[in-house]
Amino acid sequence: GQCVAVCPTGALTVKSEVDKVWDAIHDPDKVVVVQVAPAVRVAIGEEFGLLPGEKATGQMVAALRKIGFDRVFDTLFTADMTTIEEGMELLGRLEKGGRLPLFTSCCPAWVKYAEQFHADLLENLSTCRSPQQMFGSLVKKHYAREIGRSPEQVVCVSVMPCTAKKFEARRPEFTTGGVPDVDFVLTTMELAQMIKEAGIVFNELEPEVFDNPLGMGSGAAVIYGASGGVMESVVRFVAAQQSPGDVGRVDFYPVRGIQGIKEAELEIGGQNLKLAVVNGLANAEKLINRIKSGEAFYHAVEVMACPGGCLGGGGQPYPNNTASRLGRMKGLYALDRAEQLHRPQDNIFVTRALERWFGGPANANTHQALHTRYYPRRRISGKPVEVSDRREERPV
Ligand code: SF4
């Protein structure tokens, strides 16, 4: 467990937490809960001889149980929750004339970049926590109580395609009384390492399914792993909110694919929405310049730092090249097609959880538990600004 992961933005070096996760699993006083991001399931198999995008969800779940995780949950659950909260946020801004474009905020490398280089845009960022952090908040504040444990007794581990997610989990906003909402973040590669360390023969595992209630996700949540996926999920949510009688599928092809900048227009509720999707921070910079100069206008913009979105993240297996990324992307859309639940609001476990824990979506309670704020960051020769410095700066 001594491997060192490097952040795709080059600003951060983080040690693997594999050893700490093994310690937690072997601690009889802890309940160890794991969540797995969408892009992991279409890439982990590559470490065991499968092709990029070949479905390995069932084997991955079985491997996580064999490793010893007490509950095997799915980040898809909170991806659906994020879409609902963010979709409501977009509708609210459209209605009330709020700051536009609404930028997505689930990629921590993009959030940090905006904090460093575009402080004037921070009010445009969605206040929604990322699916990883919504999950941590739910587990520590609500799930722990329901199973009769304290937040300290429940260890929340994430498996992410991403190294920047380690940094996100350590943001002070996502810690309550010294207890982080997400205790440890493993990359796809680090999970593969644990599977090998445990001597598990991945390809011989019988497929298993996630635990409930936090293991259920819609197809709209699966595609979060691909560039354009968050935007398409929001479109599915908003389209269904605006025309409740219509239960047809919305497959929104203009935002799919690995191109660096994608644009789309869509009429929803009598309004023509202009949308943009970018992957790669250099592309984000180009788009932002066009927005700031008045050359372009959008209602909503999705930004992901990695090429192709999270499926091309810095924690994914090698080779992490265009061919692998295309394969994983195909895999994610195939999972979406096979999924019976198409839109986030179809996920009854999510809508029930929102009702039970917060009295519904998009209210003061969800804002407390599922949303966040952003801070301008000073740039000190590429090093992250110390937390104590950061606290002095005014929140936006
Ligand atoms: Fe992480 Fe890359 Fe996804 Fe951003 S796009 S959340 S850096 S994997």
UniProtKB/TrEMBL annotation:
It is an enzyme of class 1 (oxidoreductase). Belongs to the complex I 75 kDa subunit family. One of its GO terms (biological process) is ATP synthesis coupled electron transport. It comes from the Bacteria. Keywords: 2Fe-2S, 4Fe-4S, Iron, Iron-sulfur, Membrane, Metal-binding, NAD, Oxidoreductase, Repeat, Translocase. Its main location: membrane. Its EC number is 1.12.7.2. GO terms for molecular function: 2 iron, 2 sulfur cluster binding; 4 iron, 4 sulfur cluster binding; ferredoxin hydrogenase activity; iron ion binding; NADH dehydrogenase (ubiquinone) activity. One of its GO terms (cellular component) is membrane. Its cofactor is [2Fe-2S] cluster; [4Fe-4S] cluster. It is found in: Membrane. This is Hydrogenase, Fe-only. The keyword RNA-binding does not apply.
